[in-house]
Amino acid sequence: MEEQNERLAVIAIVVEDKESALEINTLLHEYGKYIIGRMGVPYPARNISLISVAIVAPGDVISALTGKLGRISGVTVKTAYSKV
């Protein structure tokens, strides 16, 4: 059951450096109990990958994850939150 302070969000991750994949996957595994779905799409024509992560967690947990992801070299992160 979801708690009152939990938020629903989608994290968009653009991976421009495939060498960062292990670090990304390690972080996502660390936060796995909050992740409700994940989709990865490679785009070889531009040598990038796109990952979307659906997550339900307290706002500070989502911020911590996105902050850690954003500090990885070759990674860009944006988060969209549900209004409900």
Q: Briefly, what is this?
A:
The protein has 84 residues and is an alpha+beta fold. Helices cover 26% and strands 44% of the residues. A four-stranded antiparallel beta sheet has the order 2-3-1-4, with helices on one face.
Give the CATH superfamily: ACT-like. Chain A, domain 2
The fold-level CATH name is Alpha-Beta Plaits
Mean pLDDT: 95
Overall spatial form: elongated
CATH class reads Alpha Beta
In total, the number of domains comes to: 1
| Weakly predicted, low-confidence segments | none
| Structure class | alpha+beta
Give the SSE order as H and E letters: EHEEHE
What distance separates the N and C termini? 15 Å
Largest sheet: number of strands, sense, barrel closure: 4 strands, antiparallel
Structure annotation, total helices = 2
Q: Total strand count, please?
A: 4
**Order of adjacent strands in the largest pleated sheet:** 2-3-1-4
Level-2 CATH architecture:
2-Layer Sandwich
Strand content: 35-45%
Whole-number radius of gyration?
13 Å
Helix content: 25-40%
Could you characterize the architecture of this molecule?
Helices cover 26% and strands 44% of the residues. The chain has one domain (6-81): ACT-like. Chain A, domain 2 (Alpha-Beta Plaits, 2-Layer Sandwich), CATH 3.30.70. The protein has helices at residues 21-30, 59-70; strands at 6-15, 35-43, 48-58, 75-81. By secondary structure, it is α+β, with helices and mostly antiparallel strands. The mean pLDDT is 95.
